Amino acid sequence: MSDDDGGDPRNIVDDARVKFTVGWFNLPRGLAFDHHRGLLFVTDSRNLRVKVYTCDDDGSFAFMFADRGSQPSKFMNPDSIAIDHEHGRILIAYTNQNRIQSWSLSDQSFLSCIGQYGSGDLEFNGPRGIAIDNHHRRVIIVDTNNHRLVFLSSIDLSFLFEVGNEGSQPGEFSFPHGIAIDHERHRIIVIDTNNNRVQVLSLADGSFLFQFGSQGNQPGQFDKPLGVCVDNQGRIILTDHNHRLQAFTHQGHHISSFHCGWERPLAVAFDEHRGLIAFSAGEQVHVIGANQWLADTFIWHVNQHRHAPSSIKQAISAMTMIRSLVDESAMSMIPNELLFEIFSFL
Description:
The chain is mainly beta. 7% of the residues lie in helices and 39% in strands. It has helices at 310-325, 336-343, and strands spanning 18-23, 28-34, 39-44, 49-54, 61-65, 81-84, 89-94, 99-104, 110-114, 127-133, 138-143, 148-153, 159-163, 179-182, 187-192, 197-202, 208-212, 228-230, 236-240, 244-248, 254-259, 265-271, 276-281, 284-289. Strands 1-24-23-22 form a four-stranded antiparallel β-sheet, with no helix packed on it. A four-stranded antiparallel β-sheet has the order 2-3-4-5, with no helix packed on it. The longest helix has 16 residues, at 310-325.
Protein backbone atom coordinates (compact mmCIF):
# COMPACT_ATOMS: atom_id res chain seq x y z
CA MET A 1 0.00 0.00 0.00
CA SER A 2 1.25 3.49 -0.79
CA ASP A 3 0.45 7.05 0.18
CA ASP A 4 -0.45 9.02 -2.96
CA ASP A 5 -0.18 12.78 -2.61
CA GLY A 6 -1.52 13.49 -6.12
CA GLY A 7 0.90 16.36 -6.75
CA ASP A 8 0.93 19.83 -5.24
CA PRO A 9 -1.74 19.78 -2.50
CA ARG A 10 -2.39 23.51 -2.98
CA ASN A 11 -3.76 23.08 -6.49
CA ILE A 12 -6.73 20.77 -6.06
CA VAL A 13 -8.69 22.40 -8.93
CA ASP A 14 -5.76 21.63 -11.27
CA ASP A 15 -5.74 17.95 -10.34
CA ALA A 16 -6.66 15.92 -13.44
CA ARG A 17 -8.74 13.58 -11.28
CA VAL A 18 -11.21 16.37 -10.46
CA LYS A 19 -14.17 15.98 -12.82
CA PHE A 20 -15.86 19.20 -11.75
CA THR A 21 -16.08 21.69 -8.89
CA VAL A 22 -19.21 23.46 -7.66
CA GLY A 23 -19.69 26.33 -5.22
CA TRP A 24 -19.60 28.76 -3.56
CA PHE A 25 -21.12 27.70 -0.24
CA ASN A 26 -21.04 28.82 3.34
CA LEU A 27 -20.15 25.68 5.32
CA PRO A 28 -21.22 22.76 3.08
CA ARG A 29 -21.49 20.12 5.79
CA GLY A 30 -23.62 17.50 4.07
CA LEU A 31 -23.39 15.65 0.74
CA ALA A 32 -25.62 12.97 -0.75
CA PHE A 33 -25.95 11.45 -4.22
CA ASP A 34 -29.32 10.63 -5.72
CA HIS A 35 -27.92 7.69 -7.70
CA HIS A 36 -31.12 7.14 -9.64
CA ARG A 37 -31.45 10.64 -11.05
CA GLY A 38 -27.79 11.55 -11.24
CA LEU A 39 -27.97 14.43 -8.75
CA LEU A 40 -25.69 15.69 -5.99
CA PHE A 41 -27.33 17.32 -2.94
CA VAL A 42 -25.26 19.81 -0.91
CA THR A 43 -26.36 21.37 2.39
CA ASP A 44 -25.32 25.02 2.29
CA SER A 45 -25.56 25.27 6.04
CA ARG A 46 -25.06 28.92 6.89
CA ASN A 47 -27.03 30.03 3.83
CA LEU A 48 -29.95 27.93 5.14
CA ARG A 49 -30.58 25.94 1.96
CA VAL A 50 -29.87 22.78 -0.01
CA LYS A 51 -28.43 23.13 -3.53
CA VAL A 52 -28.60 20.36 -6.12
CA TYR A 53 -26.29 19.69 -9.11
CA THR A 54 -26.28 17.25 -12.01
CA CYS A 55 -23.61 14.56 -12.18
CA ASP A 56 -23.84 13.39 -15.79
CA ASP A 57 -22.10 16.50 -17.18
CA ASP A 58 -19.91 19.16 -15.65
CA GLY A 59 -21.89 19.62 -12.45
CA SER A 60 -24.39 22.20 -13.66
CA PHE A 61 -26.81 23.69 -11.16
CA ALA A 62 -30.19 21.91 -11.14
CA PHE A 63 -32.28 23.52 -8.39
CA MET A 64 -32.29 24.43 -4.72
CA PHE A 65 -34.86 24.38 -1.95
CA ALA A 66 -35.21 26.25 1.30
CA ASP A 67 -37.98 27.45 3.57
CA ARG A 68 -36.20 29.51 6.15
CA GLY A 69 -37.37 29.79 9.72
CA SER A 70 -37.17 28.22 13.17
CA GLN A 71 -40.46 26.30 13.03
CA PRO A 72 -40.36 22.48 12.70
CA SER A 73 -41.20 22.72 8.98
CA LYS A 74 -38.57 25.38 8.21
CA PHE A 75 -34.87 25.41 7.33
CA MET A 76 -32.29 26.43 9.90
CA ASN A 77 -28.62 25.48 9.32
CA PRO A 78 -29.07 22.10 7.60
CA ASP A 79 -26.22 19.74 8.37
CA SER A 80 -26.04 16.12 7.22
CA ILE A 81 -28.30 14.82 4.46
CA ALA A 82 -29.31 11.35 3.24
CA ILE A 83 -31.47 10.04 0.41
CA ASP A 84 -34.02 7.36 1.32
CA HIS A 85 -35.05 5.98 -2.06
CA GLU A 86 -37.27 3.27 -0.61
CA HIS A 87 -39.57 5.87 0.94
CA GLY A 88 -39.00 8.62 -1.63
CA ARG A 89 -37.67 11.17 0.83
CA ILE A 90 -34.73 13.31 1.84
CA LEU A 91 -33.62 13.25 5.49
CA ILE A 92 -31.79 16.26 6.93
CA ALA A 93 -30.19 16.65 10.36
CA TYR A 94 -30.27 20.08 11.98
CA THR A 95 -27.48 20.09 14.53
CA ASN A 96 -28.33 23.38 16.24
CA GLN A 97 -32.07 22.64 16.37
CA ASN A 98 -31.69 19.02 17.54
CA ARG A 99 -34.14 17.66 15.00
CA ILE A 100 -34.46 15.52 11.90
CA GLN A 101 -36.66 16.60 8.98
CA SER A 102 -37.96 14.58 6.04
CA TRP A 103 -38.76 16.09 2.66
CA SER A 104 -40.27 14.61 -0.48
CA LEU A 105 -37.62 13.49 -2.95
CA SER A 106 -39.89 14.15 -5.93
CA ASP A 107 -40.98 17.74 -5.24
CA GLN A 108 -39.02 18.77 -2.10
CA SER A 109 -42.18 19.40 -0.10
CA PHE A 110 -42.02 19.13 3.69
CA LEU A 111 -43.16 15.79 5.15
CA SER A 112 -42.36 15.56 8.87
CA CYS A 113 -40.06 16.54 11.70
CA ILE A 114 -38.92 14.72 14.84
CA GLY A 115 -36.66 15.54 17.76
CA GLN A 116 -35.98 18.08 20.44
CA TYR A 117 -33.12 18.83 22.82
CA GLY A 118 -32.31 16.12 25.35
CA SER A 119 -31.01 12.59 25.74
CA GLY A 120 -34.27 10.64 25.73
CA ASP A 121 -35.73 8.34 23.10
CA LEU A 122 -36.60 10.94 20.47
CA GLU A 123 -34.31 13.67 21.78
CA PHE A 124 -30.96 14.76 20.38
CA ASN A 125 -28.00 16.92 21.28
CA GLY A 126 -26.27 18.05 18.11
CA PRO A 127 -27.21 15.27 15.66
CA ARG A 128 -24.79 14.99 12.73
CA GLY A 129 -24.63 11.90 10.54
CA ILE A 130 -27.54 9.98 8.97
CA ALA A 131 -27.44 6.50 7.42
CA ILE A 132 -30.21 4.46 5.79
CA ASP A 133 -30.32 0.74 6.66
CA ASN A 134 -32.69 -0.71 4.08
CA HIS A 135 -31.98 -4.29 5.15
CA HIS A 136 -33.51 -3.75 8.61
CA ARG A 137 -35.74 -0.82 7.58
CA ARG A 138 -33.99 1.54 9.93
CA VAL A 139 -32.51 5.02 9.99
CA ILE A 140 -29.39 5.53 12.11
CA ILE A 141 -28.63 8.97 13.55
CA VAL A 142 -25.28 10.02 14.99
CA ASP A 143 -26.28 11.93 18.14
CA THR A 144 -22.94 13.69 18.46
CA ASN A 145 -23.06 15.48 21.80
CA ASN A 146 -24.83 12.54 23.44
CA HIS A 147 -21.98 10.30 22.19
CA ARG A 148 -24.32 7.64 20.80
CA LEU A 149 -26.09 6.20 17.76
CA VAL A 150 -29.89 6.31 17.69
CA PHE A 151 -31.77 3.68 15.67
CA LEU A 152 -35.16 4.66 14.26
CA SER A 153 -37.78 2.80 12.26
CA SER A 154 -37.58 3.93 8.63
CA ILE A 155 -41.35 3.44 8.37
CA ASP A 156 -42.45 6.14 10.81
CA LEU A 157 -39.13 7.38 12.35
CA SER A 158 -40.14 5.99 15.74
CA PHE A 159 -37.42 5.18 18.30
CA LEU A 160 -36.06 1.62 18.35
CA PHE A 161 -32.86 1.57 20.42
CA GLU A 162 -29.54 3.32 21.00
CA VAL A 163 -25.92 2.22 21.36
CA GLY A 164 -22.87 3.93 22.81
CA ASN A 165 -21.90 6.37 25.51
CA GLU A 166 -19.04 8.77 26.15
CA GLY A 167 -15.60 7.23 26.45
CA SER A 168 -12.62 5.79 24.62
CA GLN A 169 -13.20 2.08 25.06
CA PRO A 170 -14.50 -0.10 22.19
CA GLY A 171 -18.15 0.75 21.59
CA GLU A 172 -17.82 4.13 23.30
CA PHE A 173 -17.62 7.46 21.46
CA SER A 174 -16.27 10.96 21.86
CA PHE A 175 -18.25 13.38 19.66
CA PRO A 176 -18.82 11.04 16.70
CA HIS A 177 -19.73 12.66 13.37
CA GLY A 178 -19.86 10.68 10.14
CA ILE A 179 -21.59 7.37 9.51
CA ALA A 180 -21.84 5.00 6.54
CA ILE A 181 -23.12 1.48 5.97
CA ASP A 182 -21.26 -1.37 4.31
CA HIS A 183 -24.37 -3.20 3.11
CA GLU A 184 -22.53 -6.18 1.66
CA ARG A 185 -20.80 -6.98 4.95
CA HIS A 186 -23.65 -5.79 7.20
CA ARG A 187 -21.50 -3.27 9.03
CA ILE A 188 -21.84 0.27 10.34
CA ILE A 189 -18.83 2.56 9.89
CA VAL A 190 -18.67 5.37 12.48
CA ILE A 191 -16.21 8.27 12.63
CA ASP A 192 -15.30 8.59 16.31
CA THR A 193 -13.99 12.12 15.85
CA ASN A 194 -12.40 13.14 19.14
CA ASN A 195 -10.95 9.66 19.62
CA ASN A 196 -9.32 9.97 16.16
CA ARG A 197 -10.47 6.53 15.09
CA VAL A 198 -13.01 4.62 13.05
CA GLN A 199 -15.25 2.09 14.75
CA VAL A 200 -16.86 -0.74 12.80
CA LEU A 201 -20.07 -2.12 14.28
CA SER A 202 -22.52 -4.88 13.47
CA LEU A 203 -25.46 -3.66 11.40
CA ALA A 204 -27.73 -6.11 13.21
CA ASP A 205 -27.45 -4.68 16.71
CA GLY A 206 -24.70 -2.04 16.76
CA SER A 207 -22.28 -4.25 18.66
CA PHE A 208 -18.56 -3.51 18.37
CA LEU A 209 -16.53 -5.45 15.79
CA PHE A 210 -13.18 -3.66 15.46
CA GLN A 211 -11.55 -0.24 15.20
CA PHE A 212 -8.63 1.37 13.41
CA GLY A 213 -6.75 4.68 13.38
CA SER A 214 -5.00 6.92 15.88
CA GLN A 215 -4.05 10.57 16.27
CA GLY A 216 -1.35 11.84 13.92
CA ASN A 217 -0.54 12.88 10.36
CA GLN A 218 0.94 9.67 8.96
CA PRO A 219 -0.95 7.30 6.65
CA GLY A 220 -3.67 5.62 8.68
CA GLN A 221 -3.63 8.36 11.34
CA PHE A 222 -6.18 11.16 11.74
CA ASP A 223 -6.69 14.67 13.01
CA LYS A 224 -10.38 15.09 13.86
CA PRO A 225 -11.91 13.04 11.02
CA LEU A 226 -15.51 14.00 10.17
CA GLY A 227 -17.09 12.48 7.07
CA VAL A 228 -17.15 8.94 5.71
CA CYS A 229 -18.54 6.89 2.83
CA VAL A 230 -18.14 3.34 1.53
CA ASP A 231 -17.49 2.59 -2.15
CA ASN A 232 -18.81 -0.40 -4.09
CA GLN A 233 -15.72 -2.46 -3.22
CA GLY A 234 -16.34 -1.97 0.50
CA ARG A 235 -13.45 0.48 0.83
CA ILE A 236 -13.83 3.07 3.56
CA ILE A 237 -13.16 6.67 2.48
CA LEU A 238 -13.04 9.41 5.09
CA THR A 239 -12.16 13.07 5.50
CA ASP A 240 -9.19 13.99 7.63
CA HIS A 241 -8.30 17.47 8.94
CA ASN A 242 -4.78 16.77 7.68
CA HIS A 243 -6.10 18.25 4.38
CA ARG A 244 -6.79 14.89 2.77
CA LEU A 245 -9.11 12.02 2.12
CA GLN A 246 -7.90 8.60 3.20
CA ALA A 247 -9.01 5.26 1.79
CA PHE A 248 -8.92 1.95 3.66
CA THR A 249 -9.80 -1.64 2.91
CA HIS A 250 -12.92 -3.01 4.57
CA GLN A 251 -10.53 -4.50 7.13
CA GLY A 252 -9.15 -1.06 8.04
CA HIS A 253 -5.80 -1.24 6.21
CA HIS A 254 -4.64 2.03 4.65
CA ILE A 255 -4.66 2.13 0.84
CA SER A 256 -4.03 5.69 -0.30
CA SER A 257 -4.48 9.39 0.46
CA PHE A 258 -5.90 12.14 -1.73
CA HIS A 259 -4.79 15.64 -0.77
CA CYS A 260 -7.49 18.27 -0.87
CA GLY A 261 -5.66 21.56 -1.24
CA TRP A 262 -5.45 24.33 1.34
CA GLU A 263 -8.88 23.65 2.83
CA ARG A 264 -9.79 20.85 5.20
CA PRO A 265 -12.46 18.46 3.90
CA LEU A 266 -15.72 18.16 5.82
CA ALA A 267 -18.04 15.71 4.09
CA VAL A 268 -17.60 12.94 1.52
CA ALA A 269 -20.05 10.86 -0.54
CA PHE A 270 -19.85 8.09 -3.15
CA ASP A 271 -22.01 7.67 -6.26
CA GLU A 272 -22.16 3.92 -6.80
CA HIS A 273 -23.79 4.22 -10.24
CA ARG A 274 -21.26 6.61 -11.75
CA GLY A 275 -18.10 5.93 -9.80
CA LEU A 276 -17.78 9.44 -8.36
CA ILE A 277 -16.49 10.71 -5.04
CA ALA A 278 -17.64 14.13 -3.86
CA PHE A 279 -16.05 16.01 -0.98
CA SER A 280 -16.56 19.46 0.46
CA ALA A 281 -13.56 21.62 1.31
CA GLY A 282 -13.81 25.26 2.28
CA GLU A 283 -16.52 26.95 0.21
CA GLN A 284 -16.54 24.42 -2.64
CA VAL A 285 -17.44 20.83 -3.43
CA HIS A 286 -15.12 18.82 -5.65
CA VAL A 287 -16.13 15.69 -7.55
CA ILE A 288 -13.45 13.24 -8.64
CA GLY A 289 -13.55 10.10 -10.75
CA ALA A 290 -13.03 7.34 -8.22
CA ASN A 291 -11.20 5.14 -10.70
CA GLN A 292 -8.64 7.88 -11.22
CA TRP A 293 -7.70 7.53 -7.56
CA LEU A 294 -8.75 4.03 -6.47
CA ALA A 295 -8.52 1.32 -9.11
CA ASP A 296 -11.48 -0.98 -9.88
CA THR A 297 -14.01 1.25 -8.16
CA PHE A 298 -16.61 1.50 -10.89
CA ILE A 299 -18.20 -1.84 -11.83
CA TRP A 300 -21.55 -1.94 -13.59
CA HIS A 301 -24.15 -4.41 -12.45
CA VAL A 302 -27.09 -5.58 -14.53
CA ASN A 303 -29.62 -4.00 -12.19
CA GLN A 304 -27.85 -0.64 -12.52
CA HIS A 305 -28.00 -0.34 -16.32
CA ARG A 306 -31.36 1.40 -16.20
CA HIS A 307 -29.74 4.19 -14.17
CA ALA A 308 -27.00 4.83 -16.74
CA PRO A 309 -26.54 8.37 -18.08
CA SER A 310 -28.43 8.93 -21.35
CA SER A 311 -25.17 9.36 -23.29
CA ILE A 312 -24.03 5.87 -22.29
CA LYS A 313 -27.43 4.36 -23.10
CA GLN A 314 -27.30 5.89 -26.58
CA ALA A 315 -23.77 4.64 -27.16
CA ILE A 316 -24.68 1.12 -26.06
CA SER A 317 -27.73 1.12 -28.31
CA ALA A 318 -25.54 2.09 -31.26
CA MET A 319 -22.96 -0.57 -30.42
CA THR A 320 -25.65 -3.23 -30.05
CA MET A 321 -26.99 -2.32 -33.50
CA ILE A 322 -23.51 -2.54 -35.01
CA ARG A 323 -22.92 -5.93 -33.39
CA SER A 324 -26.13 -7.27 -34.88
CA LEU A 325 -24.75 -6.48 -38.34
CA VAL A 326 -21.26 -7.90 -37.81
CA ASP A 327 -21.74 -11.16 -35.95
CA GLU A 328 -18.34 -12.45 -37.01
CA SER A 329 -16.40 -9.53 -35.55
CA ALA A 330 -14.60 -9.33 -32.23
CA MET A 331 -17.14 -6.67 -31.25
CA SER A 332 -19.82 -9.32 -31.07
CA MET A 333 -17.90 -11.06 -28.28
CA ILE A 334 -17.96 -8.04 -25.94
CA PRO A 335 -20.76 -8.31 -23.34
CA ASN A 336 -22.98 -5.32 -22.66
CA GLU A 337 -21.65 -5.11 -19.10
CA LEU A 338 -18.13 -4.46 -20.41
CA LEU A 339 -19.42 -1.96 -22.98
CA PHE A 340 -21.14 -0.02 -20.18
CA GLU A 341 -17.90 0.11 -18.24
CA ILE A 342 -15.90 1.23 -21.31
CA PHE A 343 -18.33 3.98 -22.26
CA SER A 344 -18.59 5.25 -18.68
CA PHE A 345 -15.06 6.63 -19.05
CA LEU A 346 -15.58 8.40 -22.38
